[in-house]
Amino acid sequence: MARKISDSTVRRLSRYLRRLRALDRRDQEVVSSRGLAESTGTTAAQVRKDLSHFGSFGKRGQGYDVHDLRVQLEEILGLTRRWSVAVLGVGKIGSALLGYGLFRQRGFDVAAAFDADPAKIGLELGGIRIQPLSELEQTFSDRGVSIAIIATPVEAAQEMATRAVRAGASAVLNFAPVKLDVPPGVAMREMDVTLELEGLCYMVTAAGQAADRPPDGNE
Amino acid sequence: MARKISDSTVRRLSRYLRRLRALDRRDQEVVSSRGLAESTGTTAAQVRKDLSHFGSFGKRGQGYDVHDLRVQLEEILGLTRRWSVAVLGVGKIGSALLGYGLFRQRGFDVAAAFDADPAKIGLELGGIRIQPLSELEQTFSDRGVSIAIIATPVEAAQEMATRAVRAGASAVLNFAPVKLDVPPGVAMREMDVTLELEGLCYMVTAAGQAADRPPDGNE
DNA sequence: ATGTTCTTGTGATCTCCTTCACAAGCGAGA
DNA sequence: TCTCGCTTGTGAAGGAGATCACAAGAACAT
C-alpha cells in the first residue's frame, strides 16, 4: 500500500494518535482534519495528506470518527501487538524509564533491565529486577525483546547496541550522546536532552540577533 | 549573516559540536568534513553546506581545526554564555534531570525546581531545593531563568508553560505529551519517549511487511 | 618555482515534502 | 428528490533542503 513514508509523516501520525486517544477518552465522537491539525501543530491539508497515504478514513462533510481513526492509526503504526522493551543501563535515565508507568498502558512491556554495576544487580525498580549483562542474550531470547533502550554512559553505548541487536532486538532507542551504528534493517532513534537545549539556545540567540538589526532591515 | 537556518541544520550543528568536543578532549587537532560526517551520521557535502551558512571555517586541502571549529560552533549556537534552566514538575523525569550532572558542564545551570505537591517542597535533589509554585515568578526573575523545562503531568503542562513564559522564560522544553502553545518569539521543543518508541514500532512493522511481499515485488 | 594531491566552499540540480485548490461525496432540511 | 453547506481526498504547483560536481586554494615534495 504505502511506498515510502517519511519520518516526519510517521512523527505526525504518532501525534495524531496521541491526540485521538485523548479525544476518545473524553468520548468525543468526531474530529475534522482542521481540529486534529490545530491540536497537533500542523495544517488540515497536512493531516489529510498524511492519512491519505494509508487509505481513506473520513466521511466527506463530516470528518473522522475518533475511535475508528484511533484504531486505524494504531494498526498502521504497528501498535496492535505488545512490544517487549529492555532497558540497558540503569542510571538516572534508566531508572526514570523503569518507573514510567505510561509505557505499559501504551502497549510497551518493560521486560528487563541490565546494568554493569554489580552493586545494582538484583535491585528492583518499578517491579523490574536489574540483571547482570551476562544474562542479556538469554533474556532477550526468552522474553522476545525487540526494542532495546540504551541508557548507558557514552563509552558503553555502541557495544550494548551491537550486543542487543545480535541478541534479537530490531529497534534501538538511544539516550547516549553518540551516534550509534546498527546494521541495516534495524530501526534507530536518538534522544538527547542537551541537543534539544542547544537547539533552543540557538533559536533564542538567533531571534535576539535578528531583533538587534535596524528595524528597517534591508532585504 | 544567516537568513533562516532550518531546524534540521541546527540539529546537525549540535551533533557536530558534540563530536568536536569529544575530539577536542582527545586532542585531535584536525578533522575533515568527511570525518565529521561519518561520526555524526550525515554526508561530507552536508557538513560543508551547513557550516557555509555561517562563514568559512576550514582550510582547503587540510580540513577543520577541531578546537577552533568547536569554539565557532559554540558561538553560533549561543553557548558562550551560561543559561539558567528551571525544572517544572519533579516526578520521574524531573528528578532524573535534576540529577543529570552533564548539564552544568555544558553551560546549563539548573537554577530552580518547582512542584505542586506540598510533600515535595523543601526536599533537595541534586543540590536543588524544590520550591512551591507560588515562588515561581519571583525566582525566575531573581535568577534570570530563560529556559523552562516542563516535566509535569499533561493537565498542568499548558498552564506551567504560560506562566513560565510570562515570568520571563524565552524557551520551553516540553516533556509532557501534549502540544503546548507559546507566544510567537518563544522557542519550543518537545521530547516524548512514547512518540519515539511508536516511530520505532512503525519502522519495524513496515520493514516486516515489505519483506512479506513477494521478493519480485512489482513496483 | 612548479606540479601533485587533497579538501574546502558553493552554484546548480534534484528530490522530496508541503501547500494549494478544487472536484467528489455526505448529510440535513425543504 | 433536490439543494445547500461542509469536509474529505488528491492531482498539481511550489518551496525547501539534500546532493552533485567542480573550481579555488593550501601544503608538500621535487
How would you describe this protein?
2 copies of one chain form a homodimer. Chain A is of the alpha/beta class and 219 residues long. The first copy, chain A, contains 9 helices and 9 strands. Chain A has helices at residues 7-25, 33-38, 44-52, 66-77, 92-99, 102-105, 136-143, 154-166, 193-212, and strands at residues 30-31, 64-65, 83-88, 108-115, 124-125, 128-132, 147-150, 171-174, 187-190. Chain A has a 7-stranded mixed β-sheet with strand order 5-6-4-3-7-8-9. In chain A, α1 packs antiparallel against α4. Chain A is globular and about 60 Å long. The termini of chain A are far apart. The model of chain A is unreliable at 214-219 (pLDDT under 50). At the A-B interface, α1, α5, β8, β9 and α9 of A face α1, α5, β8, β9 and α9 of B. The structure holds a DNA duplex (30 and 30 nucleotides).
Helix tally of chain A equals: 9
**Rg measurement of chain A, Å:** 21 Å
Proportion of helical residues of chain A: 40-55%
Instruction: Briefly note the structural class of the backbone of chain A.
Output: alpha/beta
Distance between the termini of chain A: 46 Å
Question: Element order, helices and strands of chain A?
Answer: HEHHEHEHHEEEHEHEEH
Whole-number mean pLDDT of chain A: 94
What portion of the residues of chain A fall into strands of 2 or more residues?
Answer: 15-25%
Going across the biggest sheet of chain A, name each strand in turn.
Answer: 5-6-4-3-7-8-9
Overall shape of chain A: it is globular
Oligomer: homodimer
Tell me the number of strands of chain A: 9
Low-confidence stretches of chain A: 214-219
Largest interface between protein chains, with number of residues from each side = A-B, 62 and 61 residues
